[in-house]
């Protein structure tokens, strides 16, 4: 596809960071702590490191096939039929992920900010917000992510005010109580599943100006986003401790409710944190939507992004309404996360290997 | 007139002919007749009914019958009498060949400056309409065209919409030539280009594109010319017409072109590598490309000390944000999230509200509406009445509304703050945009609370991030983030920090400053002189 847009690798880092900080931020501490107890911090660090495999694979793929997005790569290396089958799989899974996340968002909002507003309304308005943002211009996509990034980090500053309630014994022992390696890895896997959602980078490959710095800067972006989430885990665990944390449905929201900022400008800041979290949710959903819309456009070789995104709205809306209650959302969520993780990690690595094999075959 | 580029659009000619005046079309490419009477008759047929059409017969060199034709209302009659007819009559003929007479007159008889010869009838018709006098000579296939245009013009005074405490007081007026002279005496360099074209098939308005050749990016200049060239319209009456037709996204409510009446602002922008568009008949010049940060900056910022101007700029931004969000945040706090208000203020914030029959959103909306009506009314009112009206409107009506239990006192305060905030923004059109968006935010806030505000702000910000003005990102230097350019954004760094021109418009020549003079605080040269004498 011909284009005049370009983005720098630093912008890619910003996209990765702001995509990572998103919906799971609210609920992740409880999930990980429920699995591994006090070892949550260590497990998250391991998860963070594991997550970088996907990033390295995607950026390496980008270095090799500078002209192709992941959609194009699939078609190039796997042939028209298998490639397009995988592409459809990517798009459908992106839509499912987006649907589930927007539902989670609406549920948190209903319990934290707008108890009387029906969740259907928050769901549809969020999807429309993503549709309105537009997909025509890749640099605009990068600008949006980069612009919101500072706002996403504001809650971290606010959470810092709760440091006086932090008890160090809540965080110890670092290795948890009598954990098996399997349990520990399950916690690490949860963290990895939550933060490995920057697949959108694979759709941006043709637009990246400097592929050489992409791995380095991408890792920086990954760590910035990952550390922000890690920070939330540390704070919630440190303040509440394992026992209490397991009872709180959205620990970060609960934590933000007990924070008092000096000066009494506002009596409670949970609404402010929720607003910045809305920004975070938007950037994450926008990334997923971007993959789905631009991927579909590339499969059909058109540039009618507005049409495609409008057609997708009802589908995502229906997906968002499938789970009956909040427990089901997370059941679905974890199952899809496992499946999607295969796409995120195995697909780029597989493509790299296939690329190498095909090259060798061609050489012979 | 020197058209600076050929019409590039291939199908343009067709459409333009459609829009063009039929009389001119009829005579297109028709040579003038050799007979004086035929020519006079032709023009008479067209202009017969016009009050100010006049022609005068005389004998050229006292032997050849001729006529001068012009519009009384447009020309300087003194010039025609003294500098043209008198000389043409009194001179004695030397040249014998009739075809060479016009050239002979230009070279030997007239000392008048703007004189050319024309052959085409349609051009003659247009020339007469633009304040030129045309001399027909019997038996000659060329006519003389003399520029004797004289128009009434107002004096150069300070523009009302862009007042400044410190800085030059002159402003543009309606005449293009004077506006250009205001620019040229500030930029006495050979690199300063003023290229001219015509826009509007019927109004034939002169439009000038100004730039500094070795600073402005040639691609930008080319793009500006092309966009102006692509305009197909019967007439333009103000530079606002051009603005709306060359901006990148015509659907956007945000101003994407700077308009200003201050020559200094134009020169400052030209020196940064931007392109200015001036138009005959409009006192406001356009400058492209525009970034959003320019709408809260003024030229005065560079005249004052950098600390002061940075301080003022920060307050302007606060005012801008106030005018956009203040009333909607008030609505959400009162009607959706009263838990956010600190306990000590709850009473103060809600005490006036117990007798109010309406929901907050309705109350705020009503007040905002009446404020808009008041503002519009005071713009239309004659100046003498305007002051009285605003006193009646603000003091009497506001006070009465509170006492009648119609609105709560704190609502009046909030509305007052947000309205005044919108007036603190230096750019009128940017302030208007925000005022309009404020209503959308109020509706969103009234229905969805903080989520509504967040969504509304995101829609606005996303839209602003998607805007480009002549290829330059609208929110530059914030997105894409450019740390160096941030020195001249929310704050204005001292001049020795601003050695480079703004990078986002890709100027050819990037440096604008040499080394700063040294710091003089430790060095007392008076003492030094004394010591030397000893």
TrEMBL record, chain A:
Main localisation: membrane
Localization in the cell: Membrane
Taxonomic lineage from the root: Bacteria, Bacillati, Bacillota, Bacilli, Bacillales
Pfam family, any one: Spore_permease
Membrane topology: Multi-pass membrane protein
Family listed: Belongs to the amino acid-polyamine-organocation (APC) superfamily. Spore germination protein (SGP) (TC 2.A.3.9) family.
Segments crossing the lipid bilayer: 12-33, 39-58, 78-98, 118-135, 142-163, 183-207, 219-242, 271-293, 305-322, 334-354
Signal sequence coordinates: none
Keyword presence, Protein biosynthesis: no
The organism of origin for this protein: Ureibacillus terrenus
The protein, known as: GerAB/ArcD/ProY family transporter
GO biological process terms, semicolon-separated: spore germination
Alphabetized Gene3D superfamilies for the sequence: Amino acid/polyamine transporter I
UniProtKB/TrEMBL annotation, chain B:
Keyword tags: Membrane, Transmembrane, Transmembrane helix
A single BP term in Gene Ontology: spore germination
One Gene Ontology CC term in the entry: membrane
The UniProt record lists the keyword Cytoplasm: no
PANTHER family: LEUCINE ZIPPER PROTEIN 4, SPORE GERMINATION PROTEIN
Similarity-based family: Belongs to the GerABKA family.
InterPro entries, per the entry: Spore_Ger, UPF0353/GerABKA_families
Pfam families recorded: GerA
Designated name of the protein: Spore germination protein
Transmembrane segments: 314-336, 386-404, 410-428, 440-461
């Amino acid at each position: 596809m011909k284009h005049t847009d370009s983005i720098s690798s630093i912008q890619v880092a910003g996209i990765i960071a702001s995509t990572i900080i998103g919906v799971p931020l609210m609920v992740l501490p409880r999930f990980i702590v429920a699995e591994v107890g006090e070892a949550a911090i260590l497990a998250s660090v391991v998860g963070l490191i594991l997550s970088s495999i996907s990033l390295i694979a995607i950026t390496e793929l980008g270095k090799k096939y500078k002209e192709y997005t992941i959609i194009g790569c699939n078609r190039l290396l796997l042939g028209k039929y298998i490639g397009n089958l995988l592409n459809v799989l990517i798009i459908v899974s992106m839509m499912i992920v987006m649907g589930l996340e927007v539902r989670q968002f609406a549920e948190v909002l209903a319990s934290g900010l707008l108890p009387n507003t029906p969740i259907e309304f928050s769901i549809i308005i969020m999807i429309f917000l993503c549709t309105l943002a537009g997909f025509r211009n890749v640099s605009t996509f990068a600008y949006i992510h980069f612009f919101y990034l500072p706002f996403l980090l504001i809650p971290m500053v606010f959470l810092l005010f709760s440091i006086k309630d932090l008890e160090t014994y809540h965080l110890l022992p670092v290795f948890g109580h009598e954990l098996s390696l399997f349990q520990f890895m399950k916690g690490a896997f949860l963290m990895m599943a939550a933060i490995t959602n920057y697949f959108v980078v694979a759709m941006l490959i043709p637009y990246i100006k400097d592929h050489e710095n992409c791995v380095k800067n991408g890792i920086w972006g990954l760590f910035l986003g990952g550390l922000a989430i890690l920070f939330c885990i540390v704070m919630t665990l440190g303040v509440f401790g394992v026992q209490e944390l397991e009872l709180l449905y959205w620990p970060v929201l609960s934590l933000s409710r007990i924070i008092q900022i000096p000066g009494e400008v506002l009596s409670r800041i949970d609404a402010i944190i929720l607003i910045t979290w809305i920004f975070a949710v938007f950037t994450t959903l926008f990334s997923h939507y971007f993959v789905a819309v631009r991927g579909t456009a590339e499969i059909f070789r058109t540039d009618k992004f507005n049409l495609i995104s409008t057609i997708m709205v009802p589908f995502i809306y229906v997906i968002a309404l499938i789970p009956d209650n909040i427990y089901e959302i997370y059941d679905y969520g974890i199952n899809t996360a496992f499946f999607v993780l295969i796409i995120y990690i195995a697909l780029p690595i597989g493509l790299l290997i296939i690329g190498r094999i095909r090259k060798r075959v061609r050489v012979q | 007139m020197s058209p600076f580029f050929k019409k590039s659009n291939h199908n343009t000619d067709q459409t333009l002919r459609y829009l063009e005046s039929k009389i001119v079309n009829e005579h297109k490419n028709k040579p003038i007749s050799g007979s004086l009477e035929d020519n006079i008759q032709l023009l008479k047929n067209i202009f017969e009914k016009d009050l100010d059409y006049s022609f005068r017969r005389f004998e050229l060199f006292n032997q050849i019958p001729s006529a001068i034709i012009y519009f009384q209302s447009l020309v300087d009659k003194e010039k025609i009498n003294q500098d043209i007819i008198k000389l043409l009559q009194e001179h004695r003929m030397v040249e014998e060949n009739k075809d060479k007479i016009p050239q002979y007159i230009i070279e030997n008889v007239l000392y008048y400056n703007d004189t050319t010869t024309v052959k085409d009838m349609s051009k003659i018709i247009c020339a007469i309409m633009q304040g030129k006098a045309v001399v027909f000579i019997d038996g000659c296939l060329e006519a003389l065209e003399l520029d004797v245009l004289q128009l009434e013009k107002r004096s150069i005074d300070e523009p009302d919409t862009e007042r400044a405490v410190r800085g030059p007081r002159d402003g543009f007026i309606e005449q293009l030539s004077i506006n250009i002279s205001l620019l040229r005496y500030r930029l006495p360099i050979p690199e300063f280009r003023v290229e001219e074209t015509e826009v509007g098939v019927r109004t034939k308005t002169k439009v000038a594109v100004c730039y500094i050749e070795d600073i402005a990016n040639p691609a930008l200049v080319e793009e500006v010319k092309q966009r102006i060239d692509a305009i197909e319209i019967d007439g333009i009456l103000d530079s606002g017409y051009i603005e709306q037709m060359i901006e990148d996204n015509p659907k956007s409510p945000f101003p994407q072109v700077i308009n200003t009446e201050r020559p200094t602002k134009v020169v400052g922008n030209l020196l940064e590598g931007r392109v200015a568009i001036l138009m005959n008949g409009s006192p406001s010049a356009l400058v492209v490309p525009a970034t959003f940060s320019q709408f809260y900056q003024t030229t005065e910022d560079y005249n004052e000390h950098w600390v002061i101007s940075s301080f003022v700029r920060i307050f302007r931004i606060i005012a801008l944000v106030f005018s956009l969000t203040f009333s909607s945040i008030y609505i959400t706090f009162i009607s959706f999230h009263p838990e956010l208000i600190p306990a000590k203020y709850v009473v103060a914030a809600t005490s006036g509200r117990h007798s109010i029959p309406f929901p907050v959103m309705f109350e705020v909306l009503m007040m905002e509406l009446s404020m808009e009506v008041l503002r519009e009314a005071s713009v239309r009112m004659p100046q003498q009445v305007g002051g009285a009206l605003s006193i009646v409107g603000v003091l009497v009506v506001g006070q009465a509304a509170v006492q009648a239990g119609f609105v709560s006192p704190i609502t009046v305060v909030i509305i007052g703050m947000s309205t005044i905030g919108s007036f603190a923004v230096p750019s009128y059109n940017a302030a208007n945009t925000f005022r309009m968006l404020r209503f959308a935010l109020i509706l969103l806030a009234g229905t969805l609370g903080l989520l509504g505000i967040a969504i509304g702000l995101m829609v606005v910000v996303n839209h602003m991030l998607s805007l480009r003005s002549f290829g330059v990102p609208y929110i530059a230097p914030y997105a894409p983030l450019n740390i160096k350019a941030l020195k001249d954004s929310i704050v204005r760094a001292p001049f020795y920090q601003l050695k480079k021109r703004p990078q986002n418009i890709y100027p050819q020549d990037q440096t604008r400053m040499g080394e700063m003079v040294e710091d003089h605080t430790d060095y007392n040269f008076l003492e030094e002189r004394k010591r030397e004498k000893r």
